[in-house]
């Protein structure tokens, strides 16, 4: 059994998919980006801080897993949208371009810390203003990094991905299984 320091239902679904037994931990951390912090450092730092915070909050000594995801388009980091207008702006910028989805995963035990980063390239087709408005009306993009969910309605916008589908969802399973194996938790 591990603790999952994440509020994401997608991360929970992905852990269940690979049959990892977990208990969720409710944590809150400051997600302010440092000046001049590049996206890879930012997302990796947040995943590690979340896992460390979870380790401090955990009622037992079981390992804590955490992750953080950002979308990077033309050098700009897209987190979760602040509101519908912010989601609309993000989707307009993603339209007809490719972008990176960076997901860092961290595991913290009482004696060790491990973190890894998965980067996937996602290619969006061009979106009309009407499609963007209709998608926002579904409310799906309002709590997702980059304002879209690859596993949801937005899948019709994606021409292709190069990388990890589960990483774009928010928890790269290949890397997660590797980190868990390092601390003695085998998936199969």
From TrEMBL:
Its biological purpose: Nucleoside triphosphate pyrophosphatase that hydrolyzes dTTP and UTP. May have a dual role in cell division arrest and in preventing the incorporation of modified nucleotides into cellular nucleic acids.
Keyword Hydrolase: yes
The name this protein goes by in its record: dTTP/UTP pyrophosphatase
UniProt-annotated site: Important for substrate specificity, residues: 10, 69, 151
Reactions catalysed: dTTP + H2O = dTMP + diphosphate + H(+); UTP + H2O = UMP + diphosphate + H(+)
Similarity comment: family membership: Belongs to the Maf family. YhdE subfamily.
HAMAP family: Maf
UniProt entry tagged with the keyword Cytoplasm: yes
Molecular function (Gene Ontology), one example: UTP diphosphatase activity
GO BP field: nucleotide metabolic process
Cofactor(s) annotated in UniProt: a divalent metal cation
Any one GO CC term of the record: cytoplasm
Major place of residence: cytoplasm
Protein keywords: Cytoplasm, Hydrolase, Nucleotide metabolism
Subcellular location: Cytoplasm
Coiled-coil positions: none
EC id: 3.6.1.9
Active-site positions on this chain: 68
Organism of provenance: Thioploca ingrica
